[in-house]
Amino acid sequence: MLRHRAAEFRKFLDEIEAAVPSQLDVDLVMDNYATHKTPLIRKWLAKRPRWHVHLTPTSSSWLNQVERFFALLTDKKIRRGVYRSVAALSSDIASFIERHNADPKPFRWTNSADDILASIERFCRYNAPAQHDAMLRTSASGH
Q1: For residue 42, is pLDDT > 90?
Q2: How much is the average pLDDT of 92-111?
Q3: What share of the chain is helix, strand, coil (3-state, %, to 5)?
Q4: How confident is residue 56, by pLDDT bands cut at 50, 70 and 90?
């Protein structure tokens, strides 16, 4: 959609609601974008117990496969183009999606969960060594 407000997101959710058979649950994985958490969206979801919301952690767009696809689109198409109108940009995006969908390749994790967790631990240790060391001392002493 051209805009990304709660009203457009609600229309998207309505489309999913209409397309998914009523006997199935819906697991909705989304980021913490403000549009996803407005009163309009919260009320809509509250009325639908078959919908289960899963929010990706803040600042972890790499976990979101939709964000990963947008990064691919940006790298392979948008950055390489020159667009003199929204229509030209939209046309290029549509052609990229059409070609991608003709021969889709799934995104695959290249690291194990243990590798990812170890990387996060290294990141935390490097960026907050005093807090990390204090936490280790506290847990080692049993407090």
Answers
A1: yes
A2: 86
A3: 60, 5, 30
A4: confident
For residue 43, what pLDDT is reported? 95
Residue 81 Ramachandran class (φ > 0 left, ψ -120 to 50 alpha, else beta): beta
* Cβ count near 102 (within 10 Å): 7
Residues near 100 by Cβ (< 8 Å), separated by ≥ 6?
Answer: 72
> Measured between alpha carbons, how far is residue 92 from residues 52, 65, 100, 126 in Å?
34, 21, 12, 42
Alpha-carbon span 20 to 99, nearest angstrom? 26
> In this model, does residue 139 exceed pLDDT 70?
no
CA separation, residue 81 to residues 57, 85, 89, 95, 100 (Å): 32, 12, 8, 13, 17
Answering whether pTM is above 0.70, one says no
What does the block give as tokens for 47? 């009325």
Query: What does the block give as tokens for 87?
Result: 């229509």
For residue 61, what pLDDT is reported?
60
Smallest Cα–Cα separation from 30: which of 6, 54, 60, 50?
54
CA distance 120 to 127: 10
